[in-house]
Design a protein that fits this description.
This protein is an alpha+beta fold. It has helices at 2-29, 85-93, 97-100, and strands spanning 47-56, 67-71, 107-110, 120-128, 134-140, 147-155, 164-169, 171-173, 208-209, 236-242. The chain is 17% helix and 25% strand. Keywords: Signal.
Length: 244
C-alpha cells in the first residue's frame, strides 16, 4: 500500500513539473522584447490667436508701440497701485522690453513701431488656451513726462472665433516722474529730453488719471510743450478680435 501511495505522489510531481515546463516554454516563445511598444500620442495644444487693432485718437500726441501681455490672474499694472519698473520704462521712454518680460505673462507681443495722431496699427498675439485668460495693454503718450494709455485687464476667456471686443482708453499718469514738461525731461519729438530715469520724483508714486498737460501757452513758461499737444479722453481705441 505504501509503495502505491509513493508511486502516485511521484506521478503527481512529474505531472506538475511537466506543466510548469510547458508554461515556461510558452513564455519564452513570446518574449516581452518582441512585443510592439505602445506609443502614447500627446494631444496637440490648442492655440488662441488674437488680432488687436490700436487707434490713436489724439490730435497731436504720438503713442509708443503698443505692448500686449496675456495673463491668467495677475495683471502687469493696476489703477491706484505703484507702477512696476517695466511700466515706468514705457511711461517715461516708450521702451517696452522690461514690461513684456513680466513674470506672470503667458505670452506677450509688441507692435512694430509708434503710432502717430489719427493713425491705426495692428498686432497679432498667439497664446495657449487657458481656462482663465486676460489681456493687458500699455503705450506711452510720447510728448509727456510719464503719461500712458491702455487697459489693465480684459477677459477674453470666452471670446469666440470671429468675435470682437472694443474698448476706448484714457490717459493715465504712471506716478513715477513729476509733470514738469521741461525740455530735459520730456523724451518725445517736441522736446527730445531724457527718457527713463530710475529716480522717482512724483510724490504720488502710484497710477492715477492723468491731469493733462499745461503747456507754455497756458501759463507754464518752463514747459517745452505747446497747446497743440493737449489731449482729451479717450486717447486711443483698442479692438480685440479672436481669429483662431
Amino acid at each position: 500500500m505504501s509503495s502505491l501511495s509513493n508511486f502516485k505522489k511521484s506521478a503527481l510531481i512529474l505531472m506538475l513539473a511537466s506543466s510548469l515546463a510547458a508554461c515556461g516554454d510558452n513564455d519564452n516563445s513570446d518574449p516581452i522584447e518582441d512585443q510592439e511598444p505602445v506609443v502614447v500620442v500627446e494631444p496637440e495644444p490648442v492655440v488662441y490667436e488674437f488680432t488687436i487693432t490700436f487707434s490713436n485718437l489724439t490730435a497731436g500726441q504720438p503713442l509708443s508701440p503698443l505692448s500686449v501681455i496675456a495673463f491668467d490672474e495677475t495683471p502687469p499694472w493696476k489703477f491706484g497701485e505703484t507702477a512696476s519698473v517695466g511700466l515706468e520704462m514705457i511711461a517715461e521712454s516708450g521702451a517696452n522690453e522690461e514690461y513684456l518680460s513680466d513674470e506672470n505673462a503667458l505670452a506677450s507681443v509688441s507692435a512694430e513701431g509708434g503710432i502717430g495722431p489719427g493713425e491705426t496699427t495692428s498686432v497679432t498675439l498667439l497664446v495657449d488656451a487657458q481656462d482663465v485668460l486676460n489681456l493687458s495693454f500699455a503705450a506711452m503718450l510720447g510728448n509727456t513726462n510719464d503719461a500712458f494709455t491702455g487697459l489693465s485687464s480684459v477677459d477674453v476667456s470666452t471670446l469666440e472665433v470671429g468675435s470682437s471686443i472694443s474698448r476706448t482708453t484714457p490717459a493715465y499718469d504712471a506716478g513715477t516722474e513729476a509733470n514738469t514738461e521741461t525740455a530735459d525731461t520730456v523724451p518725445g519729438p517736441a522736446a527730445g529730453g531724457e527718457g527713463f530715469n530710475e529716480i522717482r520724483d512724483d510724490i504720488a508714486d502710484m497710477i492715477t488719471m492723468h491731469p493733462g498737460i499745461v503747456s507754455n501757452q497756458d501759463g507754464l513758461s518752463t514747459s517745452a510743450l505747446g497747446a497743440e499737444l493737449k489731449f482729451d479722453n479717450p486717447v486711443s481705441k483698442i479692438v480685440i478680435t479672436r481669429t483662431q
